[in-house]
Design a protein that fits this description.
Radius of gyration of chain A: 13 Å
Helix content of chain A: under 10%
Number of helices of chain A: 0
Number of strands of chain A: 11
Structural class of chain A: mainly beta
Number of helices of chain B: 0
Radius of gyration of chain B: 13 Å
Strand content of chain B: over 45%
Largest sheet of chain B: 7 strands, mixed
Distance between the termini of chain B: 37 Å
Oligomer: heterodimer
Structural class of chain B: mainly beta
Helix content of chain B: under 10%
Distance between the termini of chain A: 39 Å
Shape of chain A: globular
Number of strands of chain B: 11
Order of helices and strands of chain A: EEEEEEEEEEE
Order of helices and strands of chain B: EEEEEEEEEEE
Chain lengths: 112, 115
């Protein structure tokens, strides 16, 4: 079945740093989505990507849909403490309707 | 506009019991999908409903079932609960089933604990 490999699994950030995470797959996806989940809450949509090569920003967040349709990355610039949480990538193919396949998540923590 | 609501937020059951979880999508949204989230398996797709019909199903046993009502509200049911069914159950709603510009929005989830 389809699998999304998300890396890194966890990272520490210091306020002001830029951070990056990515997802890769052996399958092609038509849509890539990035979500953030805080403890005790459901995932919140950050960015949606619909076309190969598309680069989209949402404030300090920037995400790209890979040319091969098999990967995507998310960058967070000038990180702040509220960026802490778990970030998930998700992919969707047209034939599967609204079924999302999720990556394992990247846990973003603050450097002590 | 109100977001996706799920009830109850927390539930404790014992093995062998059954449970019903409810999801109210965003007003106007007709598609509802359900996901199970566990530390070991992550977020896994259970099923999707659109216009009261199941459109897609994940790899879960038949103990997991669902339905959608004419007002787009959805319920999922788990029968003969097992310890491994302990998880956060998430509902997501979207306007339609097309791929373009059809974002899915998640509710806060129902935390099910099976003892």
């Amino acid at each position: 079945g389809q699998q999304l490999n998300q890396s890194p699994q966890s990272m520490f950030i210091q306020e002001g740093e830029d951070v990056s995470m990515n997802c890769t797959s052996s399958s092609i996806f038509n849509t890539w989505l990035w979500y953030k989940q805080d403890p005790g809450e459901g995932p919140v949509l950050l960015i949606a990507l619909y076309k190969a090569g598309e680069l989209t920003s949402n404030g300090r967040l920037t995400a790209q849909f890979g040319i091969t349709r098999k990967d995507s990355f998310l960058n967070i610039s000038a990180s702040i403490p509220s960026d802490v949480g778990i970030y998930f990538c998700a992919g969707r193919i047209k034939a599967a309707g609204n079924k999302l396949t999720f990556g394992g998540g990247t846990r973003v923590l603050v450097k002590p | 506009k109100a977001g996706v609501t799920q009830t109850p937020r927390y539930l404790i059951k014992t093995r062998g019991q059954q449970v019903t979880l409810s999801c109210s999508p965003i007003s106007g949204h007709r598609s509802v999908s359900w996901y199970q989230q566990t530390p070991g398996q992550g977020l896994q797709f259970l099923f999707e409903y659109f216009s009261e019909t199941q459109r897609n199903k994940g790899n879960f046993p038949g103990r997991f079932s669902g339905r959608q009502f004419s007002n787009s509200r959805s319920e999922m049911n788990v029968s003969t609960l097992e310890l491994g069914d302990s998880a956060l159950y998430l509902c997501a709603s979207s306007l339609a089933r097309t791929s373009e510009n059809n974002e899915q929005f998640f509710g806060p989830g129902t935390r099910l604990t099976v003892l």
